[in-house]
Specification:
The chain is an alpha/beta fold. 30% of the residues lie in helices and 16% in strands. InterPro entries: Dimeric_a/b-barrel, DyP_N, Dyp_peroxidase, Thr-specific_kinase-like, VWF_A, vWFA_dom_sf.
Length: 917
């Protein structure tokens, strides 16, 4: 028996499902299994290296969870350490598990007297996914290779997607950026979603509570509770609120799903990253490749789609009687009764009857037997073969309108205008369940009396390996495109998808004068003059309605589905999830270091010295025994300034590299020049630091070397006194570093920094404390190696303490509401006698100054660069350097292992709380 027939026999009682696993019969038991109905005999997939690992793919993605209830737990992470600890105990359901669940259900139905009333197999299923902001929060900084996901949250695309109404608050991001994307701004962002699906609402509620309790205080559930989806009761089971059978058509992943006649087949990589069909994997010109950890992962799009059911019913009831105006051929015998006419009008909006039967096969009346038959309900195309007046070689809307929802979003047979492979590449696997209660007669009366309809609709989620190829193409390229599907070399306006489309925003304009004779379909080019005298052209295709004529049935389409928001998520593989869970639960054994170098005119000597000391630094670090050479990576960011101050470059970034000679070569090619005004582009360098591609399991150190301030902190003769022209806020960026566990050290080139400028000393001293870093004087270029080695070794030991004690520090702050000072004293009392760390001390070359100290505190406590912050900064009088260092000099330095100090513990506590907030 082959795999196809064995799978059909195995799952024959799950005929309503479009996604049936393709499995191989055990060689020795296949015949006996089929004969006896004992199918619980296989957990093996079709063996091939080009197929995803079903034990590594999370469960809803390929086969979809079998469920009657589904909860979506949207969350923000409060504490990364305790979250990772909980994540180690979180057991996601795999695709292999789902296959087993389906087999158990199939066996229960096979053994039941009445398969439609078989005992319920009680199951709970779990899946977790992360937003791009959530991945950054966890320290997963490497790009996924999906350009949209790596740059944009769905809030950034709200208008782009055509959402013109208000969103539910849990999906509204505080500071969306429609131009540049806002994934690096964590304010108000969702970090992830846990999907819980079960065989009953009661089981789903319990399973959701269990998973929320597992993560405990490490997360905050958005909105305070899960978003609940529930299957509709009989006789509406499997139907959405408009009444249509849902999920009838799904793409068949080759080698994983049993293909049924007419079902669209796609390569696995269209849905699962890292396999044939993945557009990033298959594109040799792609600038960003998929990291290895994305394999067996996928993109998840969640949308809450509210349905206006009562107006939809009224709309259908109003237009149904005009059936002779839209029925193919204009008439049929016997004539349609009221219910049939309304059913046909509604079917022409969707492309299928409410039963699921395809309109292309049943153009006049529903065929429920066809709808129940998995071998017939998708076995169709849109070719008209029974009308000699319609070409069989051109797409036609004779039986099914081009605008029908299923024809828009699941297009087929558009040859010769669109290649079938292109249509395959835009496929998505669709899931979700309805939400909200059933419409009652009382509600209909209330709506008739002016009350609003109760909220109900569909919790829609879908999977694909590329957002732009899948969801975005279907939403904008298909559903929202008036000219899709393409059925001619000349564009033809057909209208939007009546379900997922959105009403266009019209700009009212009145054209006066005599118009030429125009008929529908004619191309029209208008030249108009605005009130201010400007002229503009409008080109399009005419849609002429004769004076006094009634518009066609269904015109205009009022649109009955409203998006209430959603988000883009990445669903990691099980192995990637495990690596994230354990990334920082032990002392890190890797070290990433980024040098952010001022490359303006005065800095060449420092650039050269970094190059000359790099090999020694590497040897010093390896010599401690904490790392091998392979554990170390060095990155480089050079910065100058914005035009017109400097026209060469703002920042120049070199990626991490463990090859010291390669990093030295980059430094050798770096020449100091330009700069313009005193302040430079430090803000942009900090933005590049955040996005540098840090490893999750590494101690992360950024070292800024400069002799000047950034723009916007109050320095005289600042060419950009309002701050960075690209809106890179240095305070928000450093706060972000603190959350991501990036420690920032600033090496101040003295005496230039303190003698030539009045503001940067206090600024840099304040911001480094946010990250647990140090402000260190570089008054002698030859001290560079000591500054590097000492600061990095101390940072590594402090970082290890943060990893070890982060959860308890956060718990004391949140649950016991203890102050950071009290937490520090308590922790110091336990560590002082038992914990030794590398401690780096440098003689203080700066003069004491009370006003300067107050400025430091302002910068330390600031949340962003704004007038509220800068107004608190006061001028400091007098020399900032001690007299003995105003002409240079080398301060005393030492690095040794000694008992941890209270100051160091306070730094650890500050780092813990920063990473948890």
């Amino acid at each position: 028996m082959d795999n196809h027939q064995y799978s059909l026999d195995l799952y024959k009682h799950l005929g309503s499902r479009s996604l049936l696993p393709l499995v191989s019969p055990p060689v020795s038991t296949a015949r006996r299994a089929v004969a006896t109905g004992n199918f619980l005999a296989t957990r093996q997939s079709v063996p091939t290296t080009d197929l995803p690992d079903l034990n590594n793919v999370q469960g809803d993605v390929i086969f979809l969870f079998p469920k009657k209830a589904e909860n979506f737990v949207f969350f923000r992470i409060n504490n990364t350490t305790s979250f990772r600890t909980a994540l180690q105990s979180f057991k996601p359901t795999t695709a292999e598990d789902v296959k087993d669940h389906l087999t158990s259900i199939a066996v229960a139905k096979a053994n039941a007297t009445d398969p439609s009333n078989a005992p319920i197999v009680d199951i709970s299923q779990y899946q977790i996914a992360f937003s791009r902001a959530g991945m950054y929060y966890l320290g997963v900084n490497e790009d996924t290779g999906d350009a949209r996901f790596d740059q944009r949250c769905m809030s950034d695309d709200k208008q782009f997607l055509g959402d013109q109404r208000y969103w539910d608050p849990i999906f509204v991001k505080t500071n969306p950026d429609p131009v540049n994307g806002s994934v690096h701004d964590d304010t108000g962002a969702l970090h992830g979603v846990i999907t819980v699906a079960a065989s009953s609402p009661e089981t789903c509620t319990k399973a959701s509570n269990d998973v929320i309790n597992l993560f405990g205080s490490s997360i905050t559930v958005a909105g305070g509770k899960p978003v609940e989806g529930r299957a509709r009761p009989r006789p509406f089971k499997g139907h959405e609120h408009f009444g249509f059978k849902d999920g009838v058509s799904q793409p068949c992943l080759r080698g994983l799903i049993v293909p049924r006649p007419g079902q669209i087949q796609v390569d696995p990589g269209v849905i699962i990253m890292g396999y044939p069909g993945d557009p990033v994997r298959d594109d040799p010109t792609a600038k960003v490749k998929r990291p290895a950890w994305t394999k067996d992962g996928t993109m998840l799009v969640f949308r809450k789609l509210e349905q206006s059911v009562i107006p939809f019913e009224q709309y259908v009831e109003k237009n149904g009687p005009r059936w002779r105006e839209f029925i193919p051929g204009g008439d049929i015998t016997p004539a349609l009764d009221k219910g049939e006419a309304e059913g046909l009008f509604a079917a022409r909006l969707i492309g299928r009857w409410k039963s699921g039967a395809p309109l292309a096969k049943c153009p006049f009346r529903d065929d429920k037997a066809m709808a129940r038959d998995p071998d017939r309900r998708n076995d169709f195309d849109y070719v008209v073969s029974d009308n000699p007046n319609i070409s069989r070689f051109e797409p036609s809307d004779y039986y099914c309108p081009f605008t029908a929802h299923t024809r828009k979003t699941a297009p087929r047979n558009l040859h010769p205008y669109i290649d079938a492979k292109f249509l395959e590449s835009g496929s998505i696997v669709r899931g979700g369940l309805p939400y909200g209660g059933e419409v009652t007669d009382q509600e209909r009366r209330d709506v008739a009396n002016g009350k609003p309809e109760l909220p109900r609709g569909l919790l829609f989620n879908c999977y694909m390996s590329s957002l732009d190829s899948g969801f975005v193409r279907q939403t904008l390229g298909y559903a929202g495109n008036d000219y899709w599907p393409i059925t001619s070399l000349v564009p033809q306006k057909k209208g939007q998808d009546p379900i997922l489309g959105s009403p266009p925003v019209y700009t009212p304009a009145q054209v006066q004068g005599t118009s030429p004779s125009v008929k529908s379909g004619d191309r029209v080019d208008l030249q108009l003059t605005g009130k201010d005298g400007t002229t503009f052209e409008v080109s399009g295709f005419a849609n002429v309605t004769p004076k006094g004529a009634a518009p066609p049935p269904g015109e205009p389409n009022p649109f009955f589905v409203t998006s209430r928001g959603g988000e883009y998520f990445f669903v990691p593989s099980v192995s990637t999830l495990n690596s994230w869970a354990s990334a920082t639960t032990t002392t890190t054994s890797k070290l990433d270091i980024v040098f952010a170098l001022d490359a303006t005119g005065s800095m060449q000597v420092y650039i050269d010295k970094v190059r000359d000391t790099l090999q020694t630094l590497c040897e010093n670090l390896v010599g401690t025994g904490k790392w091998t050479a392979g554990d170390l990576r060095f990155g480089l960011i050079a910065f100058r300034d914005h035009p017109p101050q400097d026209s060469t470059y703002i920042t120049r970034q070199y990626p991490f590299d463990s090859d010291v000679s390669a990093v030295k070569a980059n430094l050798a090619n770096l020449q100091a020049d330009g700069g313009g005004d005193g302040p430079e582009a430090q803000c942009d360098a900090l933005a590049a630091v955040v996005k540098a591609g840090w490893r999750d399991d590494a101690t992360k150190v950024a070292i800024l070397i400069t002799d000047s301030p950034p723009h916007g902190i109050g320095e005289d003769e600042d060419g950009f006194p309002g701050g960075c022209p690209l809106q890179n806020d240095p305070i928000r960026l450093v706060n972000r570093m603190a959350k991501l566990g990036i420690t920032l050290h600033v090496l101040a080139c003295e005496p230039t920094l303190s003698m030539d400028f009045s503001t940067p000393l206090d600024f840099y001293k304040g911001i480094v404390q946010k990250t647990g870093g140090r402000f260190l004087p570089l008054s002698d270029v030859n001290s560079l190696i000591s500054l590097f080695t000492g600061s990095i070794l101390e940072t590594a030991d402090l970082d290890a303490l943060v990893v070890k004690h982060g959860a308890e520090v956060y718990a004391q702050a949140k649950n016991q509401q203890a102050s950071s000072s009290d937490i520090s004293k308590s922790l110091y009392g336990r560590l002082s006698s038992s914990t030794n760390i590398d401690t780096f001390t440098v003689e203080d070359i700066y003069a004491a100054n009370a006003q300067g100290d107050q400025n430091v505190q302002v910068w330390l406590n600031a949340e962003q660069m704004d007038s509220k912050t800068t107004s608190q900064i006061k001028d400091v009088t007098g020399f900032r350097l001690k007299s003995s260092y105003r002409n240079g000099g080398t301060p005393a330095m030492s690095s040794k292992t000694q008992p941890v100090s209270l100051d160091q513990v306070e730094t650890v506590v500050r780092m813990c709380l920063a990473r948890a907030t």
